[in-house]
Task: structure prediction
Amino acid sequence: MAMDADIGADAPPTDKNKLFLRMFLQNERRLYAYILTLLPHRADADDVLQETSLVMWDKFDANAPPTEFLAWGRRVAYNKVLDFYKKTQRTRARLSQVFLDRLSESAATQTEVLQLDDRREALAWCLEKLPERDRDLLTRRFADGATTQSTSEQLGRSVEAVYKALAKLRQTLFNCVQKTLAREGSA
Result:
């Protein structure tokens, strides 16, 4: 996203600036991908992204930031795409409202798939960080046909001990994935 260097150049960075920039930059790629699904030309998508970011900045309240920043950004972008089509009056490129709505829903689904891919990557990374003993427990328990009972027998541990160990591992992996996604801006 290109912005003029002198916009707000004399103003010291505020908490609003930092918070908005962090949230926007974490979601910019997905927001741009969403806009690209609604517009046929990259240059138009670039313009709409810039307009979207300006509206988001104007409406952003650092004291009550949106809990679903990407969903909020998509709504703003969708309205900017509609404005774009109204302004340009492109009769051949003009999409019906129904088609645009369906395309928007499809793009949202694609974004959710991207988020799922990010979660899988984060999970793979977190699994690699586990100690060998924990990875072995997971491998044994989730092997084809394995049960908690059969896993406990293989390890010489009680079923209850295996259940507790698995619950602890699930929580550890969940926390690791959440932290990883938060660092990458995908949560």
